[in-house]
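Worked Example 4.2. Read the sequence first, then its structure tokens.
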Amino acid sequence: MKKLSKLLCLIAALAIAAMLIACSNGGSGSSASASSAASNASASGSGASQSSASTGDPLSLWTDNAPLKQKLTAYVDDVTNESSPNFIPVEDRIATFDFDGTLFCETDPNYFDYTMLVYRVTEDPNYKDKASDFEKSVAAKIIDLNENGTKYDELPVEHGQAVASAFKGMTIDEFYDYVHEFMKQPMPSYKGMVRGGGFYLPMVQVVDYLKANDFTVYIMSGTDRLILRGIFTDPSCPIKVPLNQVLGSDETLVGSAQGDADGLNYTFGKDESLVLGGEFRLKTLKENKVYIIQREIAKQPVLSFGNSSGDFAMDNYALSNKTYASAAFQLCCDDLERENGSESKAKAMYEDCEKNGYVPVSMANDWTTIYGDGVTYTGAKKELALAA
């Protein structure tokens, strides 16, 4: 009986051991599966975000046959697919965007930074009586351009010089606050929109779509860098990017107690503020955009978005990328009903796109809206020859 009892105990022990081994193997398999699933999810993170975005159509404000919508989505699908020969690592997914006329209302009646200078010099009750003769002459040229289409080749640089001097001594935060207040003024040619509300909603979707697919977006504009950053720090701005990705034309910055001392002979004090130094440095247009891209980003873009000849150098720099597939897109201002467009400028841009291999964007035909349903264009159509 004792032998039988021992035998039964041994059988029971063996059965329990077998069950423990089976459970151990099953648990190990489950753990491996979970680890593999987590690894796969991590590896296809951008694909997952793209897939979920596609469910709700991330480019819903674009018509289905819009060339950008078709080509950009095919491009993104390709370069974010790890099994594709055109796969681009996340760290090299660089997209550069112009600002005025590409992401934002270009002219009403002129660029945002041009109109802000005119306000500062001719209307601002705290400054107009202090404006220099040079600043007044620049404002007069801008007004002449607005009203008569008179083109001044020197205006882009002179405008930068006048902005630098007209706001000299402001801290960066004070300058941002000034920009924010100017953004609240009504947009003259639009009902239902203030100056800071001029973002092209279909292009905002493009930025969001690229960010969702792990592209790093840089704003590369001829607009003064601090004006641009003022716009992007305002809570109303629909595009969220770090300020070190917002690049524009440069002016000097100095210590608040620095005076005329050269930076090589001066040490910033612990109790100082950084203020606008009053001198203009560089207009970020044309070839200067390429220079700034290399200086600030140190990588060649794979995507470029612009709207004028001032962006062609940036476009060509992206298209000359010999490591990765690339593309460039140019907006054509052909909408005369919802926007202050120009048939002649749009026609010239379509021709340039055909000649240079840029993908054209028709504001009239590719977008279901520009600023949203609550905004109506009320201005007169003008064919002003604004500087590129």
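Now turn to a second chain, presented in exactly the same format:
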Amino acid sequence: MASVQEPQRVSAADFIRGFANWRLQSAREPVVVTHHGKDAHVLISLDDYRRLDADPTDVADTANRLEQSLAGLVESIRDGVILIDPQWRILAANPAVCDMLERSCADLIGAPLTTAVPRIEGSLLAQHIVRLIDHRERFSGEVPDIFRPRQWLRVDLVPAPVGGALVLRDVSDALNDFAANDARQALLAAVEVEGDIGHARISVREAVEAANDTLLEMLGVDAAAIRRVRFSALLAVGHRGAFAEGLEELFRSGQPVRLASQIVTRDGDATDVTLTIAEVRGPYASDGAVVMVTRRPI
């Protein structure tokens, strides 16, 4: 059993002579000042004194205000929050999760979680909730089809004094974007295997940022030779104006543009091609375009 450490003691005379030192000591622990060998005074820090002087009702009021502010925070966040007890009964639900379930919060309070969200029963998430309640084990991950088919939720399971909390965010759009990007990558891979379609990625100022091997072979150059070159400079002079107009129309309307054109090789030969230009759209603005190049039949 740990022993209680005795406070430092100093006589009144020594305390007066070394006041500066004892004042610093009292910031870390109380200093007892003795008079004729008996404890007479205690020097403590201002923070310790204020804590001693605090009104217990003020402490309770502060705790209540903190609890109310936390409840208000949960109410206002965009993530859905469900608080459950060890029997999986819903103790609280914020407006965001009620909107996800398309039910009133009053209807959810007191209902079993598996009744309010039937798809949880028998799912992998149910096993994580068991570990949350029994072992206070946290979990974070993307889970499909909990509220409705083809919907993905980001789920965080967090231990709580009364049981546990489920924090839910709909991430379907983000995961669909990942899937669409995978599909685009697969399409580009198929284009490369085909071998007859050239393509280049250009900036909004039409500078070439990347080109595939088919286009480089059409031009008779290597990648370094055309990097940062304006794409229109690769075309026959008579077709450059039409490309610039087509690019401007693309950025204005967002609709792909198709042009008959001619591309000029390193040796100066002009090859009849069809250009298809599609915009690459970033989160806030255009990131440039992709130009597909195919030879036109003679």
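Notes for the reader: The two ends are 97 Å apart (CA to CA). The domain at 8-53 is CATH 3.40.1620.10 (YefM-like fold).
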